[in-house]
Design a protein that fits this description.
The chain has 110 residues and is mainly alpha-helical. The chain has four helices and no strands. It has two domains: 39 residues; 71 residues, F1FO ATP Synthase, CATH 1.20.20.10. The longest helix is centred in the middle third of the chain and has 38 residues.
């Protein structure tokens, strides 16, 4: 699983770099000044990092909610009084997604 995620990350970064190079070559062919079309790598990586923060946190939050939900349903099948005690744990797991979104906003605007 980790190799697949690493492979996808490398592919996304390489696609962004190739897209930038293609845009610069097209601008040079059309005679547009390179200073106006110069896209910095920092700008590309900023958006990539924000997308990565949201994506990984949402995947992790979904995995956490799945495990907590299945454990809570198993506990509630044995004792119905545990339903109120399991709900806050699912809410804490969903908070992971919100933290990832907050980090992405901080990356984009700061």
């Amino acid at each position: 699983m980790k190799r697949k995620i690493l492979f996808v990350c490398v592919m996304l970064i390489s696609m962004a770099v190739f897209a930038q190079e293609a845009a610069q070559e097209a601008a040079q062919e059309q005679g547009v000044a390179s200073a106006a079309t110069d896209v910095s790598y920092a700008g590309i990586l900023k958006y990539f990092a924000a997308a990565l923060a949201v994506g990984i946190s949402c995947i992790a939050g979904g995995m956490a909610v799945a495990r907590i939900g299945s454990a809570a349903m198993g506990a509630m099948s044995e004792n119905a009084d545990l339903s109120g005690k399991a709900l806050p744990y699912a809410g804490l797991a969903e908070g992971i997604c919100l933290w990832g979104f907050l980090v992405a906003l901080l990356i984009l605007f700061l």
